[in-house]
Amino acid sequence: MEHITLLLAIVVVTALVFDFTNGFHDTANAMATTISTGAMKPKTAVAMSAVLNLVGAFLSVEVAKTISSGLVNEDGIQPEVIFAALVGAILWNLLTWLVGLPSSSSHALMGGLIGATVASVGIGGVNGGVVVTKVLIPAVAAPLVAGIAAMLAARLTYKAGANIDEKSGRKGYRAGQIASAGLVSLAHGTNDAQKTMGIITLALVAAGALAPGSNPPVWVIVSAGLAIALGTYLGGWRIIRTMGKGLTDLQPQQGFAAQTSAAAVILASSNLGFSLSTTHSCSGAVMGAGLGRKGGVVRWSTATRMFVAWGLTLPAAGLVAAGSELVTRQGDWGVAAVVVFLIASCTAIWFISRRQVVDHTNVNDVDAEGTDEPAGVVTTAIAAVTPPPAGTVTDLKATIPAPAGEDTASTTPAPAATV
Q1: 354 and 385: one domain?
Q2: 241, HSE (Cβ side, Cα atoms, 13 Å)
Q3: What is the DSSP-derived secondary structure letter of residue 73?
Q4: Are residues 288 and 346 in the same domain?
Q5: Burial class (CB in 10 A: 0-12, 13-18, 19+), 300
Q6: Which of 224, 201, 283, 213 is nearest to 248 (CA)?
Q7: Residue 315 sits in the same domain as residue 407
């Protein structure tokens, strides 16, 4: 019993560490566009997001119930399995943060849980129907729905504001961005904080400290909300840079459309109990809003790297979790070995990240880490057909040498006489 109690404490602490990484990993979902368009100062934006994430954690427990009693069969699941799942999820979160790619913390957690469960009790321990209906289908549908909604919303916004003074319009849309960013933060708290609540609840059930099918205890809700809020406040500046500047260049109108569309999709999924990836929703909305402006483009090379990371999330986290589970089942020394491995890996990633620091002072400096990519085919084609600025034709003519024998003075009109 002492072993179970100690292991359970390790699992709870590790789950809160994951919740913390989830917070700074996903800050970009709510605040990247607000920061990139200048609607809010970076530190102010992440502080507001942290508070609203904490509030959102108390609004619903539907997603937590999906994680704790739907994704895997509780029978036969031991705390070691949950610990191994968290190890896989944390390491994938940190690796994608290091390279500045917005991947899904939710899918990292679920991939880790699936991998550890399969390694422990076999494929029969996973509820395949729940994985398909509440994980895989939303993973594909969320960015598409949010992207289409954001694209249409952006076009509608530009049409509606066509006759509005540009200065006052920008001011109004920035105010709208702040409101919509707050809504996304609230939605993120209702969705992502609950995943940690669900995993801790599952650990409590596995250890016999809680009855199967129970809702998360109050202390679990409070601790998960505080952990994700603290992580959000520290800000995942590398991913904020990619989301705000790396995918597309957004104007306030587009930022407002992207955030409002993403918030609507996330809140709807939370009420239905879908364990939706807020990253997929917000990334899809940003790309959709980028295409919603006439002449707007998406940097597809960055988007492609992001899509690859999305596809690798479930299997990568699952493989690390499965390996961790095989070690932890060896007993106390196995658990200790995995703890040491996790701490060493996190420390190494942190030191590597210090080689090129990204924080609130340079988050919008796209050249610092090469986020400002070379123009792609679409961007180059649009630039080729864009009319040159006024005055360039005359300047160009002056630089072209005249044919031999032709008097350039005779072809150039004399300036008008002044009285």
Answers
A1: no
A2: 23
A3: -
A4: yes
A5: middle
A6: 283
A7: no
370 and 386 housed in the same domain = no
Residues 268, 387 within the same domain: no
Encode pLDDT of 228-269 as tens digits.
889 888 867 888 888 777 778 777 788 888 888 888 887 777
- Report pLDDT digits (tens) over 285-313: 888 888 888 777 788 888 888 899 988 99
Go through the chain and tell me how many residues it has: 419
Domain carrying residue 405: 380-411
> Mean of the pLDDT values across residues 1-10?
68
* 8 A C-beta contact, residue 15 and residue 87: no
Q: For residue 65, what pLDDT band results from cuts at 50, 70 and 90?
A: low
| The pLDDT of residue 377 | 40
Q: Is residue 418 part of a domain?
A: no
DSSP bridge pairs for 362: none
Is residue 2 over pLDDT 70? no
How many CB atoms lie under 10 A from the CB of residue 298? 20
**Summary mean pLDDT of the chain:** 78
Looking at the structure, tell me whether residues 224 and 120 fall in a common domain.
yes
Structural domains of the chain, count: 2
Q: Is residue 416 part of a domain?
A: no
Is the separation of the CB atoms in 146 and 104 below 8 Å? no
> Are residue 212 and residue 131 in the same domain, yes or no?
yes
Residue 407 CA to residue 404 CA, distance in Å, equals 9
For the question of whether the overall pTM of this predicted structure is more than 0.70, the answer is yes
| Contact (CB, 8 A) for 85 and 116 | yes
Does 417 fall in a domain? no
> Among 233, 262, 258, which residue's Cα sits nearest to residue 247?
258
> What crossing angle do the helices spanning 332-353 and 300-328 adopt, rounded to 10°?
160
User: Is the same domain home to 181 and 202?
Assistant: yes
What's the whole-number mean pLDDT along residues 393-417? 47
Q: How many whole angstroms separate alpha carbon 58 and alpha carbon 8? A: 24
Query: Is the residue at 227 inside a domain?
Result: yes
Range of weakest confidence among 73-87, 187-201, 329-343: 187-201
